[in-house]
Design a protein that fits this description.
Its main location: cytoplasm. It is found in: Cytoplasm. There is one protein chain. Helix content is about 0%, strand content about 55%. With about 190 residues, it is mostly beta strands. A six-stranded antiparallel sheet has the order 1-6-2-3-4-5, with no helix packed on it. A five-stranded antiparallel sheet has the order 9-8-7-10-11, with no helix packed on it. Strand 3 and strand 4 form a beta hairpin.
């Protein structure tokens, strides 16, 4: 058993007969009344996100998890196949437990969170950012440079990302996997 003081991003807890992962949290100490913790929880079975508030000192049941490094191999319909980096054992995971499946490139290394008690995979943690090549982008129009003007671009995984007007086909860009947004152009 843990308490609200142990809450951190990535912590897996049992809540409402399901296993949730804490995505965001905020300790709030109002001037009047007791302190509390505002959290955003993601269900590891359904993928639904919900907001919940825990009062200070509330006991929460944490889930013992292990993380293992896996390499993404290929997708087959809604199933994504991964290989363990050390044992070379392969597993197939459903698309809904991945945070950003459309940004996953073959050969990418990810961390798979596994329930230590049941040996069931719970979720896949992507790296903070990925570098992908732009396969299609409309040409930027000269003089069309209002502040923060963006255009849609398609990357090699098939995902669509809004990028600045100066990005062209063939450019490699860095994408934030948490938000799916453009970060910067990568020079090689």
């Amino acid at each position: 058993m843990a308490s609200t003081s142990d809450i951190r991003n990535g912590l897996c807890i049992k809540f409402n007969h399901d296993i949730y992962k804490i995505i965001e949290f905020l300790h709030v100490k109002p001037g009047k009344g007791p302190a509390f913790v505002r959290t955003k929880l993601k269900s590891l079975t359904t993928g639904k996100v919900l907001d919940n508030t825990f009062s200070a000192g509330h006991k929460i049941e944490d889930v013992r998890v292990e993380t293992h490094k896996y390499q993404y191999l290929y997708a087959e319909g809604d199933m994504f196949n991964f290989m363990h980096a050390e044992t070379f054992e392969q597993i197939a995971l459903n698309k809904n437990i991945l945070d950003a499946p459309d940004l996953l490139k073959e050969g990418e290394n990810v961390m798979v969170i596994i329930n230590a008690e049941t040996e069931a995979p719970l979720s896949v943690d992507m790296p903070p950012s990925v570098i992908l090549e732009v396969t299609y982008a409309e040409p930027g129009v000269k003089g069309n440079t209002a502040t923060n003007a963006t255009k849609p671009a398609t990357v090699e995984t098939g995902a669509s990302v809004n990028v600045p007007l100066f990005i062209n086909e063939g450019d490699k860009i860095k994408i934030d996997t948490a938000t799916g947004s453009y970060q910067e152009r990568v020079k090689e």
